[in-house]
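Q: Given only this backbone (353 positions), what sequence would you predict?
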């Protein structure tokens, strides 16, 4: 079990605490997500202002526990939750999952959690301010999680000057980013900032030097079409894109997916396309059935299955080929898809120092 003292030891080799200017001369760098992890951070959903239906909340909590337990078989997992929620969470998560007393409202650790990078050999928080996807959802606690976690670990916070979500940008850890404009060039996140300014700040926040943009979709889902539900980097200059099995020319998400695919190919990215499931358990049109919303941890890929035997098998086979040497573990996470997200959205890695 990883204690706070253990975490401090992991990050403390010559540590200079928050407030120091010692990092100013060193560029910030965020490693690729598939690199080695110290642990995975997750968040415990509990706010009744978000989940007014108690039974629905319990279903989501059980799903989050399933994801945490699956990851914990391969690397340490820390679940962030207010102390008052620990007893309930402990009934669902395994003993291999550590509970830390950091209040949360919702589960989306990829968006409101802490992106940890490096300046030199010291871990720092590369901070993009979360505001509930443009003030669409209560985020009294979630908007403070990243900086509270940095204080908990005793690491420096490096502000990006941006408001947004880490799920709205993908990085390959080798200098390349991709994003949808709809998640960043929008008044409820970054009013008055041009795309050039936003791009410059994102590149600096990740330690990257090149960015691929596509338009995305504005105002039709809470995230304004996060890139990680469509496209993911699977190595330097390589990407996996989750495309509809049949393109509907009148569907704005389908049109945006085609646009993103074209932009990646035009930029020289080697792209592998995987089809969405066509016979899934949940039939709702708003359901997010994305095989691309997987999470790579030490020794494994934790991915979704949606009840389409052929498509599920193809997705697992593709991920096994793209991440050789890792076990592919598939889970029923329909509760997350009904909320508009997936496993990647619910996780955030702490990279090895």
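A: Predicted residues:
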């Amino acid at each position: 079990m990883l204690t706070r003292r253990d975490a401090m030891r992991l990050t403390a080799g010559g540590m200079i605490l928050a407030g120091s200017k010692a990092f100013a001369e060193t560029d910030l760098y965020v490693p690729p997500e598939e690199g080695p992890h110290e642990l995975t951070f997750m968040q415990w959903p509990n706010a009744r202002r978000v989940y007014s239906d108690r039974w629905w909340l319990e279903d989501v909590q059980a799903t989050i526990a399933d994801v945490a337990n699956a990851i914990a078989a391969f690397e340490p997992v820390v679940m962030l939750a207010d102390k008052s929620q620990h007893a309930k969470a402990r009934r669902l998560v395994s003993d291999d999952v550590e509970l830390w007393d950091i209040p949360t409202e919702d589960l989306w650790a990829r968006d409101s959690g802490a992106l940890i990078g490096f300046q030199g050999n010291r871990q720092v928080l590369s901070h993009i301010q979360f505001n509930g996807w443009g003030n669409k959802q209560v985020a009294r606690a979630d908007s403070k999680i990243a900086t509270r976690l940095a204080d908990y670990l005793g690491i420096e916070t490096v502000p990006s000057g941006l408001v947004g979500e880490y799920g709205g940008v993908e990085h390959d850890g080798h200098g390349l980013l991709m994003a949808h404009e709809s998640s960043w060039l929008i008044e409820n996140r970054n009013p008055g900032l041009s795309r050039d300014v936003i791009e410059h700040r994102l590149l600096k926040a990740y330690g990257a030097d090149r960015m691929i943009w596509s338009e995305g979709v504005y105002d039709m889902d809470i995230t304004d079409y996060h890139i990680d539900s469509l496209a993911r980097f699977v190595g330097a200059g390589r990407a996996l894109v989750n495309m509809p099995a049949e393109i509907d020319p009148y569907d704005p998400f389908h049109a945006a997916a085609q646009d993103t695919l074209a932009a990646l190919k035009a930029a020289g990215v080697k792209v592998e396309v995987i089809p969405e499931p066509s016979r899934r358990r949940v039939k709702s049109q708003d359901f997010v059935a994305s095989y691309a919303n997987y999470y790579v941890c030490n020794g494994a890929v934790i991915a979704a299955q949606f009840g389409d035997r052929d498509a599920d098998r193809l997705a697992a086979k593709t991920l096994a080929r793209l991440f050789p040497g890792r076990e592919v573990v598939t889970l029923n996470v329909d509760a997350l898809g009904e909320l508009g997200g997936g496993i990647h959205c619910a996780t955030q890695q702490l990279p090895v120092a």
